[in-house]
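Annotated sample (chain length 120).
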Amino acid sequence: MDDLKLGTVEARFADIIWQHEPLTSRELVELCGRELDWKKSTTYTVLKRLCEKGIFQNENGTVTSRMTKAEYASAQSEKFVTDIFGGSLPAFLVAFTRRKKLSEADLAEIQEMIRQMRKE
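Output written by the structure step:
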């Protein structure tokens, strides 16, 4: 699952699946025809590629996610912090807050997250 990055069109395709799953591959072809103006072959090609990435699966003609949209976003965020900041969350936060100050609500939410993590 190293290469989870989705292009713009792949992301729209993924959203279709996440919004409608579980769905049959036929339903997916129909949705992609309407929403993306794709032919059946394009839908199956992109589905196969995203199945190979481990994001979705097509079992007996039923398409479902192997990774929720939230799990996908978490994996992307983790990869970004790893690639850009050497895996250091504090380094990311320093860079982030140089241009955007955190509100009191943001700080309270982060403090609560830290408190919860210390309990675990």
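Annotation: Residues 37 and 81 are 35 Å apart (CA to CA).
Annotation: The longest strand covers residues 56-59.
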